[in-house]
Fold this protein.
Amino acid sequence: MNGELNVRVVLKGVHKVNARLATGEVKTYYYAWRGGPQIKAKPGTPEFVREYHEAYASVRQPRAGTFMTIIAQYKAAPDFTALAQSTKRAYLAYIKLVEDEFGDLPIAALTDRRVRGEFKSWRDKFANTPRKADYAWTTLARLMSFAKDRGIIATNPCERGGRLYAADRKDKIWSEQDIAAVLSVASAEIQLALILALWSGQRQGDLLRLPWSAYESPYIRLRQSKGGRRVAMPAGTPLRALLDATDRRGPLILTNTLGRPWTSDGFRTSWSKACERAGISGLTFHDLRGTAVVRLAIAGASVPQIAAVTGHSLKDVEAILDAHYLGRDIQLAEAAVLKLEARTKL
């Protein structure tokens, strides 16, 4: 065994996750329990056993009648365990903040009308990083919602808490120059992703999972992961031409340079590098979804027509155009005047 001690101990609850890296290699990750901390030592070694026991020793034991008992119940419930691994990791970081501040708070105190003010004051400590403040509040509200659903508390003191972070979208539209700049330096795989997003208006996650079976020229049909909305759209001529010319190297339309499915991190890294080479900053892949809405509006599409393509609700399309873009885009104004000129002689 080359001097290595192979420890054969059955460790209850160890969770194993196999993940395919961007290189195509399959790597196995071990966690002390589902949703728990990662064990980085090699399985079968004393270090692995030590990290396992340290993870369990670090778990704060809930004291009866305190907020910690709610947190412990939430972590063990399907509300949490059924979440994606990446989502759970994100929640655990903010749950830790809640534990540190309110873990010993008596459950009885949650019925005091003043507790909402205490929660707000805690959130405001993160006001210098508004997104963090909002995520912390959302996590706290989720825990309170769980407690209410389980009959532990009668009302949720965190309902309708509002947000500190407000994204300013006025500069978040991809111009024709921006698009051309990326297309001029990007790989064929990134170019296909850009054109697909631009002409479909779909989210990155849905596009990375989009199979070739969803494309039956000239239509693309899919079910959006967020909300489950079914979308059927004609692929525009530029997109259709690109799809028809693309080699089908696997079941999914978008693949990396090795012909393998993209991981979210792998795609994000390659996309960022392409944007950096093109000199693009301040714009994200997600902004292509809003850009698709604006492009359709500029072309004269109605709100229902835009919604049919992108899968937005009518209300969301109107909000995007009204609140973020319509009043600021000169092309829309020019299109409106041209339509008026075509219908009148005065």
Notes: The longest helix spans residues 130-149. Strands lie at 15-20, 26-31, 38-39, 215-216, 219-223, 230-234. Residues 1-7 have pLDDT under 50 and may be disordered. The radius of gyration is 25 Å.
